[in-house]
């Protein structure tokens, strides 16, 4: 029997004995526990005892437990200005760690607001009871049973831990230590508390994690360990640095919003194509839907199409060798002059207000290709570019699009145009070369097919390999059912579209990954201004498998966690108070081991149902930074065999 199933059996036994009076869960640790003791101490699932109280929880509750820190107003805290340009000085990073108003989300989950502690006397009674001892006697069990306490005792006990271990007695306790000034956290103070249970003659190992909040969704975590008997609580020379940040789509800047909106349009077009094909396969006669355009008069549309096909493309003078930062390049990407015909057509055709108008627009386009002298020959390798070229060269008749074909052609040129937008930004910002972006954007298991990205171009392979005789076939109404003759036409004929459901899904997912990478890089630029890490961040993020999404809406989030060299951020953090600190000291001798974890945070990590019981009332501080503080002690005693 494995240890996890043994703990599950213990849970089942305890549930039968105590579920009438207590809530008992078998799941991952609650956030407040994980914050205090750290992820290294939490292994898998735990059993948690608590009581539930939903009477005090309010909708849209905002925690009253955050500290109000009154500071003199200064220009450093002025966060106004351009929505893309952050006018704050770099020294304002410490203010961000201090100013609790910038932290808009609670550090706990919504369901944890229902948790309420049990009086510590009752918990101790349970631990000493015969029923609990019988249930906890499984020799092969491993893991912990935790009891959430009310904190009303003299020691302000919040959690008690009973841990299963085959050769040791292990018990743990978390107590609330009150609100303390940041300057009071010193090595001497911590050592005094740690050695109170062990004595100074024992060994000492210290693990430290300091987290600095750059923004509410962006933090720098510095971690290190030391065997020094007098450990330093700040180390910006040898520590490991982890940059963690979350991009929320609803927080996109106006410049990047143009890009994500294009991706939303493409996702919607693909959804409408699939909806039509599903109805078609079910023998439901229904015209496809196009719902992404703002509307354009047919006369204006005809004029615009004629113009882009017959006028020589202007050279984009904005593409200069002058040094530009990433936000300047993003802005210029949205206003630069396009050179390829199908890129220009995307901007025109997507404005159509309905499927009927879109279909008519393609008809106007093909008539223009057949009758006009096309100066701006398409250079993109997509299906629409091939059709225009063949019609203009009199090798194909004017095609008659049917069903979802207009949407499919529009989707393909839109995907290619959006990829080129991202390529322009990454290359012009000197983040990486075009080849690097292509290679990074192809999964490792598909390198042999890594010809070009996006994957829409792979769908053209069949069309490119047609012989000259097949290319002269007429593109007339292609309403052939899926029969043996239709399969022959697919091989020998020249289809109006090469839409592939799976390839377009992979392409959209990859474009979303590229966009999220861009947003993460922009956050680094705006708030840390570390340009030297762009390539490293880009390389790591784009090599990850892209996630498949069903929709692109405001609730979408993308998290990034990446290692950085400490020299990149040393000057930004020197002299700053960490937003939270976790300091773990371990000592042991022949008979027992003592672990003491000190956790400090500028915000209360416990929900109001719990924290109000031990008096973390809101307070005013005017001159000093303040921490909430907790103490976790774990004592391991070796059993006699």
Helix content: 25-40%
Largest beta sheet, briefly?
13 strands, mixed
Distance between the termini: 23 Å
Task: Count structural domains.
Answer: 2
Task: Write down the overall mean pLDDT.
Answer: 82
Radius of gyration over all CA atoms, rounded: 32 Å
The quaternary state of the protein chains shown equals: single chain
- Strand runs, count: 15
Beta strand %: 15-25%
Total count of helical runs of at least 4 residues:
21
Counting helices, strands and paired strands, the structural category is: alpha+beta
Shape assignment: elongated
Low-confidence blocks of residues: 59-104, 447-492
Structure in a nutshell:
37% of the residues lie in helices and 18% in strands.
Description:
The structure is a single chain. With 641 residues, the chain is an alpha+beta fold. The protein has 21 helices and 15 strands. The protein has two domains: 5-55 and 105-236 and 576-638, no CATH class; 256-312 and 324-440 and 501-564, no CATH class. It is elongated. Component of the RZZ complex. Belongs to the ZWILCH family. Its main location: nucleus. One of its GO terms (biological process) is cell division.
Key attributes of the depicted protein:
single chain; 15 strands; two-stranded parallel sheet; 13-stranded mixed β-sheet; alpha+beta; 2 domains; 641 residues
Please write out the topology:
Blueprint: H1 3-18, E1 23-27, H2 31-37, E2 46-52, E3 68-69, H3 93-98, E4 115-116, H4 120-128, H5 130-135, E5 143-148, E6 157-164, E7 168-181, H6 187-195, E8 205-215, E9 218-226, E10 240-248, H7 254-281, H8 298-310, H9 326-333, H10 341-349, H11 355-371, H12 383-392, H13 405-428, H14 434-440, H15 461-464, H16 468-471, H17 484-492, H18 501-527, H19 534-542, E11 557-564, H20 566-573, E12 580-588, E13 592-601, H21 608-611, E14 620-621, E15 626-638
Parallel strand pairs: 2-5, 3-14
Antiparallel strand pairs: 1-2, 2-4, 5-6, 6-7, 7-15, 8-9, 8-12, 9-10, 10-11, 12-13, 13-15
């Amino acid at each position: 029997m494995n240890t996890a199933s043994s703990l599950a059996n213990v849970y089942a036994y305890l549930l039968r004995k105590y579920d009438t009076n207590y809530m008992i869960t078998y799941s991952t640790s609650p956030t407040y526990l994980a914050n205090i003791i750290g992820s290294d101490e939490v292994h898998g699932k735990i059993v948690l005892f608590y009581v539930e109280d939903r009477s005090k929880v309010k909708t849209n509750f905002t925690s009253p437990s955050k500290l109000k820190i009154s500071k003199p107003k200064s220009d450093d805290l002025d966060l106004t200005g351009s929505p893309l340009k952050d006018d704050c000085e770099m020294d304002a990073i410490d203010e961000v760690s201090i100013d609790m108003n910038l932290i808009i989300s609670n550090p706990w989950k919504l369901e944890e607001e229902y948790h309420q502690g049990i009086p510590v006397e009752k918990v101790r009674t349970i631990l000493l009871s015969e029923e609990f001892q019988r249930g906890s006697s499984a020799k092969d069990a491993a893991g912990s049973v935790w009891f959430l306490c009310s904190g009303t005792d003299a020691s302000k006990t919040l959690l008690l831990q009973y841990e299963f271990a085959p050769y040791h007695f292990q018990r743990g306790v978390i107590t609330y230590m009150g609100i303390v000034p940041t300057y009071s956290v010193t090595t001497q103070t911590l050592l005094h508390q740690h050695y109170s249970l062990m004595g100074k003659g024992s060994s000492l190992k210290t693990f430290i994690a300091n987290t600095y909040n750059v923004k509410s969704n962006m933090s720098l975590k510095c971690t290190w360990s030391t065997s020094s008997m007098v450990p330093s609580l700040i180390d910006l020379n040898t520590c490991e640095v982890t940059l963690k940040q979350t991009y929320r789509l609803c927080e996109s800047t106006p410049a990047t919003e143009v890009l994500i909106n294009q991706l939303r349009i493409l996702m919607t077009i693909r959804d409408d194509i699939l909806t039509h094909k599903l109805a078609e396969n079910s023998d439901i006669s229904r015209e496809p839907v196009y719902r992404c355009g703002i509307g354009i008069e047919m006369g204006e549309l005809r004029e615009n199409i004629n113009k882009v096909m017959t006028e020589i493309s202007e050279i984009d003078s904005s593409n200069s060798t002058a040094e530009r930062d990433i936000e300047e390049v993003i802005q210029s990407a949205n206003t630069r002059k396009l050179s390829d015909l199908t890129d220009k057509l995307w901007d025109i055709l997507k404005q159509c207000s309905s499927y009927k108008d879109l279909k008519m627009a393609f008809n106007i386009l093909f008539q223009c290709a057949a009758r006009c002298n096309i100066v701006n020959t398409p250079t993109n390798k997509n299906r629409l570019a091939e059709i225009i070229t063949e019609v203009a060269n009199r090798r194909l008749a004017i095609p008659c699009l049917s069903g979802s074909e207009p949407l499919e052609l529009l989707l393909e040129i839109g995907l290619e145009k959006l990829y080129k937008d991202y390529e322009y930004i990454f290359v012009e910002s000197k983040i990486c070369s075009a080849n690097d972006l292509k290679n990074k954007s192809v999964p490792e298991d598909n390198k042999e097919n890594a010809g070009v990205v996006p994957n829409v171009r792979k769908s053209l392979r069949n069309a490119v390999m047609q012989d000259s005789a097949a290319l002269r076939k007429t593109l007339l109404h292609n309403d052939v059912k899926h029969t043996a003759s239709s399969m022959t036409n697919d091989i020998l004929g020249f289809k109006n579209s090469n839409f592939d459901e799976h390839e377009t899904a992979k392409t959209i997912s990859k474009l979303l990954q590229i966009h999220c990478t861009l947003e993460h890089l922009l956050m680094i630029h705006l708030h840390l201004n570390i340009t030297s890490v762009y390539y490293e961040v880009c390389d790591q993020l784009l090599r990850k498998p892209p996630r498949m999404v069903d929709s692109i809406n405001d609730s979408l989030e993308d998290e990034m966690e990446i290692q950085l060299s400490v020299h990149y951020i040393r000057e930004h953090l020197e002299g700053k108070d960490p937003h939270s600190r976790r300091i773990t000291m371990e000592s042991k001798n022949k008979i027992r081991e003592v672990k003491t974890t000190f956790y400090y945070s500028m915000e209360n990590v416990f929900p109001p149902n719990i924290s109000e019981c031990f008096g973390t009332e809101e307070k005013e501080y005017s001159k000093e930074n303040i921490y909430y503080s907790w103490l976790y002690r774990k004592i391991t005693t070796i059993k006699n065999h």
